[in-house]
């Protein structure tokens, strides 16, 4: 069996274990809620997390590459980027996949057909994509902050009559 | 030596990302940037005559509290338990069933257990048990009691300003405990020590002194509306003439000042102006604005009952001075909770005004019999129901709309169907979000109750996620591109939330949609909507 076939065969176990590890990064009471409430509107964090991980396992199975991974990573990291995680903790779930695969796949036996080095390479790619997505989310937060301040500032100037918008047919044109 | 080095696999397996697992009383508060709002400006606190005005910083150890602060908290707590029976009952009757625990948008979004409504209330209850119950005094920690310490006080401040008082939790409480009331009481007690945030204290001071949150003086307020008159003329060819403080007008109109000064609320404001002009031209109805009562929002509500009362009284003083028949209120959030739940016993009954009747349709607004104040969505829905408005809904055809029930008009005053009725009559494409995210169960925008500052953007985004998640669903399923609402805080807060979570969706007020569809007497052929965007079929 190739890596892809082994991954596909064990997908549910891997996903279950990865999801559990990921929600365990929250306090115990929260983790229980994230895991047990299945309604995507009552529990958007848990369900979005699950869907992101699901898409990431699929991306790994098909060796889909960094772009597909980044797309799958966006929803989960968009959430973790505004929660109380440090950058390393927000993205750590990606690295935990290495351990989980070692626990669930036949391992590094030469005859197993599972190329662990290749899977590690893909997870490293996933980690790099995760850094990019995480930083983009943080940049968006700062952009929103900056925009609100800017609008407030220029709005005040305008209201105070200290700023006049240039008109195309005004003097100098 | 190489043998002593730990193998990568072993190293990896030793990493544990799980939090400590300590109980909530043993989890110290960690005041994190992005989650709190700046402390109030001492000048604003002084203007309002509130205690302990001084500069202070939540991140510093010393909060510059009065020496006897513990006694002040104890006395303030006792005074409120004696004064408000509901508060006493809410302190006693919670059985910690957990029904509310996972209903709070801040808990859902942040994942912080202290944002479970039951636990946020427990921050106060633990001190209540310690200070005011025999069982608490004897059993101490075993009975869930703990003394008020500086750490506990900081925890109160941090988490009571992570609650938007939206009352979603109270919908699910089998005992009907209104956890928002507990936050309100907690914030009142914090105010006794001068522990408020600037996004509340300064608007309240401005409102008290100048008349609105931004401290805009009367001439500037009029200037802004005059700008809109020009903009409206450009779009419609009609020059509207808003009335200011017109004695003997039929109706006084009061809206949050956010509608006058911040996009996209400004388009809603233009919507009101067009509607009022239409009603004057067609039916002779005289509606007046006021630069004195130029604020519908009442941030006093987030300060103390007394402050709320002071701000609310200005609206009624102006109505009395102008001699209007009744008051029409704009698209605001907590203004309506104040009117609906508190006004009558604070400044009411407003028996110098008439019981509101729509002079055009004859409809009596029974619900406003005592407060004499009618919501503009009810008013417009009534006009539409009686066929009094000429509408062309196709002008909104490029807008695929969903409706966000703002917490206060929905849960605070029970207005659920009127805005929907209006939207469905002024536009052709309307889709509801999932049932457990709308109407009584609506999710807060994440920025209400004075938390719509810039410095707490992470908190706003996390708290706004459950709402945005439902918007994302209707965007992906039905192609929704416009989120309508009837609250000025929503119009200020949701654009940022959409920008982060669902950038393809814009935010609009109800009356912007109404005005786009409203066929004005003497209008030119309209090519754009109020935002200057081409109307459907008018694209180049």
The number of domains of chain B is: 2
**Which spans of chain A of ≥5 residues are poorly predicted at pLDDT below 50?**
none
N→C terminal distance of chain B: 75 Å
Tally of contiguous helical segments of chain B:
22
What is the average of the pLDDT values of chain A?
A: 90
Which series of helices and strands of chain B comes N to C? HHHHHHHHHHHHEEHHEHEHEHEHHHEHEH
Query: Quick one: how many beta strands of chain A?
Result: 0
- Spatial arrangement of strands, main beta sheet of chain B: 1-3-2-4-5
Helix content of chain A: over 70%
Uncertain segments of chain B are none
Percent in helix of chain B: 40-55%
Count of DSSP H/I helices of chain A: 7
Would you tell me the overall average pLDDT of chain B?
94
Structural class category of chain B: mainly alpha
Q: Summarize the helix and strand pattern of chain A as letters.
A: HHHHHHH
Largest sheet of chain A: none
Characteristics of this structure?
heterodimer, A: 173 residues, B: 540 residues, mainly alpha, Fumarate Reductase Iron-sulfur Protein, Chain B, domain 2, five-stranded parallel beta sheet, globular
Describe what this molecule looks like in 3D:
The complex is a heterodimer of chains A (173) and B (540). Chain A has one domain (3-137). Chain A contains 7 helices and no strands. Chain A has helices at residues 3-9, 11-23, 28-36, 44-61, 66-80, 87-104, 116-159. In chain A, helix 2 crosses helix 4, helix 4 packs antiparallel against helix 5 (66-80) and helix 5 packs across helix 7 (116-159). In chain B, the strands form 2 sheets. In chain B, strands 1-3-2-4-5 form a 5-stranded parallel beta sheet. In chain B, strands 6-7-8 form a 3-stranded parallel beta sheet, sandwiched between helices. In chain B, strand 4 (326-329), helix 16 (334-346) and strand 5 form a beta-alpha-beta unit. In chain B, helix 14 (265-283) packs across helix 22. The longest helix of chain B has 22 residues, at 457-478. The chains are: A mainly alpha (173), B mainly alpha (540). The interface between A and B is large, with 46 and 49 residues.
